[in-house]
Amino acid sequence: MTTFSKSGFKTLNYNSFRPHYPPSFYKVLSQYVQKGQQQHELPVAKAIDLGCGTGVATYPLLNFVRYVIGLDLSPSMINTANSLVPQRLKEMGIDPSDSRITFQVGSAESFVNSSDNVEASSVDLITAAQCIHWFQDYDSFFQSSAKLLKSGGTLAYFYYIDPMIVNFSGPSQGIKEDILEKAYEVYLKFAYNDPNLIGPHWEQPGRNILKNFCEEVNSHIPRDEFTDITINTYKASATNPSADTAQELDLKKLNISLQEYLAYFETYSGFHNYKEKTGNVDLIKADFVKELVDATGWDLEKTKVDLVWNTGYTFIRKK
Ligand SMILES: C[S@@+](CC[C@H](N)C(=O)[O-])C[C@H]1O[C@@H](n2cnc3c(N)ncnc32)[C@H](O)[C@@H]1O
Questions:
Q1: Does residue 127 contact residue 51 with C-beta atoms inside 8 Å?
Q2: Which domains are present in the chain?
Q3: Ligand 1: which of 3, 29, 72 to mutate, judged by most atoms within 8 Å of the beta carbon?
Q4: What is the pLDDT averaged over residues 161-185?
Q5: Which of 91, 141, 194, 196 is such that its CA lies 20 to 30 A from the CA of 101?
Q6: Taking CB atoms and a 6 Å cutoff, what residues make up the pocket around ligand 1?
Q7: pLDDT (tens digit, 9 = 90+) per residue, 199-252?
Q8: Hey, is 312 helix, strand or coil?
Q9: pLDDT per position as a tens digit, 16-39
């Protein structure tokens, strides 16, 4: 079971504090999808969003796909996704009676392997946002996706990891570059480097696959089934705080409070596992805050920060 499926995982917090891909990302994705169509026309008929969670990356697909199925292993994620449907469709100006989106519980592996749900060669787009690093068997995942996709259909996976604070405003102590470096060191200590903190509580190999920009996943792409392989990654840094040459990779939250930064950290599955194992629910709110504030001179109430994520995507086309 992944951590996200555990009953104690706060799926509404997840929905609120996780970053969303920018419209420029979906534009690049839709252009790629369009290129695979015989008439080069959008919308396409059908997409499946694997590991959809609360639907963060599922809804934007409705802008260029007629019918979208969101699928996730976690019943609590799917419950939250379903509870948000009326509100989200209203925000997008889509009539709920058009039934253009459904969310179902299911694993990426069993869904693509079963012919009960979706016919072979019937899907235009399969997406996996921020979840492919959890999948169990990449060879069978790619083969099953190839089976479901139409010729010319797209398989797209995309992800983000380890936000870096690249700027701040408000009280502080010291030289800006040093402060940013110290803040990142505190982050790395709590997220990975201290064996008594969250580091040992990540599910592996998933976290390491993600940290390595999904290279392991890319290495399994079957070249006899897929073509037009497009891989793009961006590594955030304080000296290069924007992915401005490839705006679709610009995943950021600007001018947010330290509380919001901490709330994002609290959505980490590694933190959830740490809490379960140790009973220490206040690690982030107490120890992390203290070290961060001591290292930077920031003020929990007044300091605002700009966060930029390392990110990347892979698009491939069914031959
Ligand atoms: C980090 S969340 C990403 C959710 C959403 N796609 C997004 O971009 O915010 C990862 C999701 O993948 C789901 N997941 C993990 N392994 C899965 C699998 N094998 N099949 C289906 N869903 C899976 C988890 O339950 C979780 O909801």
A1: no
A2: 3-161+205-237+310-318 (3.40.50.150), 162-202+240-308 (no CATH)
A3: 72
A4: 94
A5: 141
A6: 2, 4-5, 18, 50-53, 56-57, 72-74, 77, 107-109, 129-131, 134-135
A7: 999 999 999 999 999 999 999 999 999 999 999 999 988 777 776 677 888 899
A8: strand
A9: 677 889 899 999 999 999 999 988
Choose the residue to mutate in 4, 131, 145 for probing ligand 1, maximizing ligand atoms within 8 Å of C-beta: 131
Amino acid of residue 286: A
Torsion 193-204-207-281 (CA) sign? negative
- Phi and psi for 68 in degrees, rounded to 5? -125, 135
Of the candidates 3, 12, 32, which has an alpha carbon nearest to the alpha carbon of residue 158? 32
Residue 186 identity (one-letter amino acid)? V
Residue 79 vs residues 20, 60, 109, 141: alpha-carbon distances, Å: 20, 19, 20, 25
